[in-house]
Amino acid sequence: MAGNSFGKLFTLTTYGESHGTALGGVIDGCPAGIDVDIEAIQQELDRRRPGQSSIVTQRKEPDTVKFHSGIFEGKTTGTSIGFVIENTNQKSHDYSHIRDSYRPSHADYTYDKKYGIRDYRGGGRSSARETACRVVAGALAKQMLKGIEISAYVSGVGTMKLNKPHTALDLTQIESNIVRCPDQAMAKDMEAYIKEVRSKGDTVGGIVSCVIKNVPIGLGEPVFDKLHAELGKAMLSINAVKGFEYGSGFEGSTMYGSDHNDAFNNDGTTKTNFSGGIQGGISNGMDIYFNVAFKPVATLIQKYETIDKEGNTVEMQGKGRHDPCVVPRAVPIVEAMAALVLADYFLLNKLSKL
Amino acid sequence: MAGNSFGKLFTLTTYGESHGTALGGVIDGCPAGIDVDIEAIQQELDRRRPGQSSIVTQRKEPDTVKFHSGIFEGKTTGTSIGFVIENTNQKSHDYSHIRDSYRPSHADYTYDKKYGIRDYRGGGRSSARETACRVVAGALAKQMLKGIEISAYVSGVGTMKLNKPHTALDLTQIESNIVRCPDQAMAKDMEAYIKEVRSKGDTVGGIVSCVIKNVPIGLGEPVFDKLHAELGKAMLSINAVKGFEYGSGFEGSTMYGSDHNDAFNNDGTTKTNFSGGIQGGISNGMDIYFNVAFKPVATLIQKYETIDKEGNTVEMQGKGRHDPCVVPRAVPIVEAMAALVLADYFLLNKLSKL
Amino acid sequence: MAGNSFGKLFTLTTYGESHGTALGGVIDGCPAGIDVDIEAIQQELDRRRPGQSSIVTQRKEPDTVKFHSGIFEGKTTGTSIGFVIENTNQKSHDYSHIRDSYRPSHADYTYDKKYGIRDYRGGGRSSARETACRVVAGALAKQMLKGIEISAYVSGVGTMKLNKPHTALDLTQIESNIVRCPDQAMAKDMEAYIKEVRSKGDTVGGIVSCVIKNVPIGLGEPVFDKLHAELGKAMLSINAVKGFEYGSGFEGSTMYGSDHNDAFNNDGTTKTNFSGGIQGGISNGMDIYFNVAFKPVATLIQKYETIDKEGNTVEMQGKGRHDPCVVPRAVPIVEAMAALVLADYFLLNKLSKL
Amino acid sequence: MAGNSFGKLFTLTTYGESHGTALGGVIDGCPAGIDVDIEAIQQELDRRRPGQSSIVTQRKEPDTVKFHSGIFEGKTTGTSIGFVIENTNQKSHDYSHIRDSYRPSHADYTYDKKYGIRDYRGGGRSSARETACRVVAGALAKQMLKGIEISAYVSGVGTMKLNKPHTALDLTQIESNIVRCPDQAMAKDMEAYIKEVRSKGDTVGGIVSCVIKNVPIGLGEPVFDKLHAELGKAMLSINAVKGFEYGSGFEGSTMYGSDHNDAFNNDGTTKTNFSGGIQGGISNGMDIYFNVAFKPVATLIQKYETIDKEGNTVEMQGKGRHDPCVVPRAVPIVEAMAALVLADYFLLNKLSKL
């Protein structure tokens, strides 16, 4: 209810502040008997980890996950799965500069107004650090969804856009570069661009695209819980996301019905896929694909003016080890959220018929 | 759970098929003591009604709502509010042409695969007719949210785009034309365009934009239930929606942080509003604004080939009284969903402090 | 959230005041393809109906249910099922005597204090009339649970107790008398007793027992959602219920473990059944059985003193057509709630393994 | 959904097996700004702790709780509160005797049938050890509910019953003896009785009663979520509970309405309190009181025959450090569950009016 849970049947509840003792969560509703590969879960966390490459924040945080329950002799038992990621990088920082001031386009102001109190250390609960827990649960969801392939990648950094449909890309190349763009030439350009932005103490936005293959037909619920509606919510819940579109997306709004309709083949597949693998909110077995827009990170390594709690103008100086562009590290988060949605709807779909 | 409910605290549960006896729903969690203006609710329904103008479907359906409970002596009582909209336009149609065939880019195929059975009359539960119930509940939510102004309008029809920020528009003009575009010149062009498209038996997509003014600070929950995430889900759950963006949206992904950050004024308002009135998932009191992309309606008044249940190619002929472009009628639906989200988060926010 | 919904997956949401236009509800989450026997549903309603015999309230209310959606060609479609029961017995009563006064041991006082407003006509939402909607949904749940036999019966009226285990009773005799007690001699005594109580304008409490046979093994969830915990909640939510016990119940608290443990037979059944068919919150395939205690109806056909809204002492006079003892009419309600719980847990159990 | 969460607004989600690495949980929905006394929480845990006295299990387990998040500078922040209790007593037991066999009246058989797998070490998830997490959350709930007094006590051990209404007891004496019975003479007898039962390797059931004073008027929701229904579910969800009754309870079912009705005083209080502080499911400000029946612990320190997974008869020998009677340690668990229900309904009630 208070926003720290996701999913109806395959449910993740998380906790943890950026600079608190630990992050953690509970996964409830995972069916019994799933083989768990804990190393593979840690690998997904490593894809999200700070310090993994030269274009992301250089903060050092190993992000090691420990499971406390719900897994026995290598398999899920059907009971709730608790896990913890300790925060090992809690230096005794001096937070006085942000304790009483509001950084622009952060959550400082709104948390303070809403709760009357805020853990100001490193953004507290509003820090994107919480997404580590999503990656853990998403990685487990992927293991439950054996056969379904979820591949996210960077398709835009600033004005630099990969204008190719996913069908024209070699998705096996995503992890071959630190940007996580499957087009190697474009990846090189994006990397240079991000470095240039960083050198100015600035940041830039970007786009993560995602393709999901081998989705069973029937995932999605009518009316309010359409599959793409939940995917949209999942993506929009990731820090810094400003937009979501699937299938033909915003471009589709400019088209004629006669061009946009996906004619059937005789086996039930469709000749085109403007629908993005979802019709009437329910998967039709074609590839699901969507784009997620991320704004530029709000923390700049620059001097700027802002206000304190009393409304006085104060000068602040961004410092530290921040991402100049979030999209390379957002790739595993997008995949994790997609996996959580699919796991949930996969289970829901078991209830559509007796 | 099965997709027919929306909202956590201010909850709408709906039922009803396009050509069944009636649509209806239950609104639960509306606080006691709200003055209810039933006529105003009916007026919202009338804005969504078929046959209201020359550019929408000419189906005749009065869409009269009757309340059964939860309102007493003009006020809500705090108990559940049941309502019914009878389907008066159920002719004894011949549905044989769609009973065993799947119309392209409709939900026929996916519902059949998911449930093994489908009410094929006029799209059944997948028909946008269900949105009438959303408009009823949204209109009540608006009455609870006295002072908050929610204004949706058409900002795009096909490639025709109203490239103006909402701050440059006169929102009082929205209802002054049948397109529901506040720019009168543009509205005229859009109307002509829609008529032309219809004359070819074709359809076209469009964009609905929405602005919400006077939002209290503090609406929105951390992590998974950010205010814009729920708004996004709400909009994406509307039939034919393919994309959602708020604040700077997809354009924001191309910007630098130094341009995108919204500097504070001393009173806590911001000089710019790329954040779209939401920071860290929580409203900051500035205008909330967002865009919703609608695909072209799938039903064309044309001949086409498709498949039947056995996978045989069959010829079909779209006929009847369909919308050439949904966006004029989608305007009140977008507003209703926005109102439902705000009502829910308004109540949730009462729980943030004791 | 606001108390008008029951069930997690097989969900009933209801509305309706005692003397409003209509009662109704929405059943969501019923799987597709269930054969629906609407006549059988009406028959269950008839078992709950006022005026059905000489020992219940003589109010005339046909309680005819109409389904609006979710059932097509005799089967459930998997979409939400809306239904309505019109209130045909709304006379233009004079309610002035209860409008401003609080009847003792009713909900008048608490509703007024909680909501600041109350539909005072006939108890409004707090009237047991709402249980009609439960019976509708429970009857549908029974049809989904083909093979599971749920039999409730009256085992106590006032101090008159049927001190026999359910295994010593002929449950086919329950409907053979108007008390709904399977022991014919006892039923006769109870009937006489109820009539005597009524003749004094008084009321008396009673006990409904329930046995559920052929329950699949595995229904129930760990920790908070144990099967008997949900059964308990379901029963305690019925108007006038003061207690619930299952299996050995309160008597079990006086026993030694060496007497109470249920030894296994080699086929997994148990030699005794003090567990009441549930171990660790999960059904073990043995008969589930429980008792539900009902207090005496609060409305007496007598003169009494009470207070008005201002706290002044006022005299009131109970009148009208009230039940002298609720248990005969409570039997189908207990069965309905048991069916709703089982339907829900039956679906939940489909998720325990992949 | 899968049974490891409790509460709608003040929500506890727990995890952990008896002999796993750790137990833990997440409390979500606790409002911001509550002063947290962590020592007082630990004290509640100590009341539940094994080894605390000579009449409970002599297992050594310090049960120290560590909070990971959601509390900052001594106050709740409104974000989710994660906590962990490490299992320090995990010896490398030999579990071969229960791995393949089913202990009578335990959850071994049902878990295995439901999930196809089971953490057999010490009962796994079905162990009452999980209630430690409930006590943590309940203790925090108590701190939120300042002013409301929740007092549980032992009122029955086997056939030994404290036949006094709570109004005739000195509740300050509850903690003055190891049985937690406020009547010192009775406590002494109960203690001797429990020791005698233990000396035979047997166990015995008992009753915990609970009184809640200073409850605000208005807690409880209509229809399905009546306050006592949720209290009943909460209590029935505790391991070994077989029954629940509130106010007049089962005894009330034998009474006449003319004796049972609670006449009003002019200030809205009532002269009697057969209603148990709840009318129409909503608190009326009078004392809430209820009884909870616990069965005898199933683990006997005796030899007995049972079956293995293949249905073969096997001989087992109960051993170890088990409670001869759970009620003394159940007292803080009953209080914790009551506090969780009240916290939830306290928040819900903030939504009844705007």
From TrEMBL, chains A, B, C, D:
Catalytic activity entry: 5-O-(1-carboxyvinyl)-3-phosphoshikimate = chorismate + phosphate
Sequence intervals crossing the membrane: none
Annotated binding of NADP(+), by residue: 48
Gene3D superfamilies: Chorismate synthase AroC
Cofactor stoichiometry and binding remark: Reduced FMN (FMNH(2)).
Keyword ATP-binding among UniProt keywords: no
UniProt xrefs under SUPFAM superfamilies: Chorismate synthase, AroC (SSF103263)
Pfam families: Chorismate_synt (PF01264)
Molecular function terms, GO-annotated: chorismate synthase activity; FMN binding
Cofactor(s) essential for the protein: FMNH2
GO terms classed as biological process: amino acid biosynthetic process; aromatic amino acid family biosynthetic process; chorismate biosynthetic process
Documented EC number(s): 4.2.3.5
InterPro entries: Chorismate_synth, Chorismate_synth_AroC_sf, Chorismate_synthase_CS
GO cellular component: cytosol
Keywords: Amino-acid biosynthesis, Aromatic amino acid biosynthesis, FAD, Flavoprotein, FMN, Lyase, NADP
Pathway assigned to this chain's UniProt record: Metabolic intermediate biosynthesis; chorismate biosynthesis; chorismate from D-erythrose 4-phosphate and phosphoenolpyruvate: step 7/7
Record-stated family: Belongs to the chorismate synthase family.
Assembly, per entry: Homotetramer.
Stored HAMAP family: Chorismate_synth
Stated role: This reaction introduces a second double bond into the aromatic ring system.
Name by which UniProt lists this protein: Chorismate synthase
Organism: Snuella sedimenti
Lineage: Bacteria, Pseudomonadati, Bacteroidota, Flavobacteriia, Flavobacteriales
